[in-house]
């Protein structure tokens, strides 16, 4: 599996070309962070990255995403050990299965 940084490095010229075609007024040069945001927010670029087996979210983003899903689930009554540091957080991912 490729990292997002590898995908951007290997395809920088094609990514910039596609973005400029789609949005000619985009400010250039596009740095890695800007290209990553385009990939994550544009369906075509996102699907391209997935087709190249890019780990689009990486481990850090996956943990952050999990943390977001764990918040505000208190009414479901299921405390998540992975987010214990957040206090009384509950997790939609760890609901008991029937």
Which features does this protein show?
98 residues, mainly alpha, 4 helices, 52% helix, globular, disordered C terminus
What distance separates the N and C termini?
Answer: 34 Å
Radius of gyration: 18 Å
Percentage of β-strand residues = under 5%
Basic shape:
globular
Care to count the β-strands? 0
Q: Structural class of the secondary structure composition?
A: mainly alpha
- Count of structural domains: 2
- What is the ordering of alpha helices and beta strands? HHHH
Largest sheet: none
- Distinct helical segment count: 4
Average of pLDDT: 74
Which percent bin holds the helix content? Answer: 40-55%
Uncertain regions: pLDDT < 50 for 5+ in a row? Answer: 68-79, 82-90, 94-98
